[in-house]
């Protein structure tokens, strides 16, 4: 960052935000193993946030239980603004829809800080799948229920619930195989040990680029510029999958509002940096940069979107 830019940002900062600086490093807790879309966004953001906040920002991966181990860790951390969860829906709003045997209340014990990005989802298959398109694969899953497997980062993850919605909308029966993270899941998908996954484009792009997996559909209504020849699920006549999948920062409830505002302001500045946007665009990530109020509204709406899948699929965290 240039000296001029630092001076301009300092001039814009209010005295109150300056006083909200916390001591010690800020930890961005990523709920999945390295290589997934959340990790891929958090790592290039960390050093740029460090420049904005004038303190160390480190990424810490805590995996397991579809990200709930990390969410619990942040929910039980001191409310100082130094421990933040880089969340996707599974750790907050899907967990709220499941709401079973949790040691914390995701909608009360975690509070919104900043909506970082929206993340497109893609249905991809490995070499064990011979069907040329998604309708043919669905027909096979109807004819042989439970024989075609799909991998996810865990029970209650976005992948799990979106494929469950796919099952419900089409009458197919894809069999769930939960993993602790997308990296190992992709290894087994590429090896042909499992058939399919539905994942963030950022997570599957390297394997797509190498020709190790094939994309059958983009989830939702809008085609991806990066996959112009891949149809959407809406184009294929599959409704009910047009769900906004986001990545955002949340903090422990009770974190001072000034500390949250300071971090949110730094995030907004970081998301305007061309070098970061240049890294996000090829991965299909759409920078958002909405603050606590707008992000909170998104969080409030989300649980209802997932309850249908949870109820009809009889999904539990047990």
Helix and strand succession? HHEHEHEHHEEHEHEHEHEEHHEH
Count of separate structural domains: 2
Rg measurement, Å: 20 Å
Strand order of the largest sheet: 2-1-3-10-4-11
CATH superfamily of the largest domain: Bordetella uptake gene, domain 1
Bin the helical content: 40-55%
Word description of this protein:
The protein has helices at residues 3-12, 15-19, 37-53, 68-75, 93-98, 106-109, 134-143, 158-170, 182-191, 201-209, 257-270, 274-280, 292-313, and strands at 26-30, 57-61, 83-88, 110-118, 121-125, 149-152, 175-178, 196-200, 214-218, 246-252, 286-290. The chain is an alpha/beta fold and 318 residues long. A 6-stranded mixed sheet has the order 2-1-3-10-4-11, with helices on both faces. Strands 7-6-8-5-9 form a 5-stranded mixed sheet. Helix 8 links the parallel strand 6 (149-152) and strand 7 (175-178). The chain is globular, with a radius of gyration of 20 Å. The relative contact order is 0.19.
Overview features:
19% strand; alpha/beta; globular; 318 residues; D-Maltodextrin-Binding Protein, domain 2; 6-stranded mixed beta sheet
Summary, kept brief:
By secondary structure, this protein is α/β, with parallel strands linked by helices. The protein contains 13 helices and eleven strands.
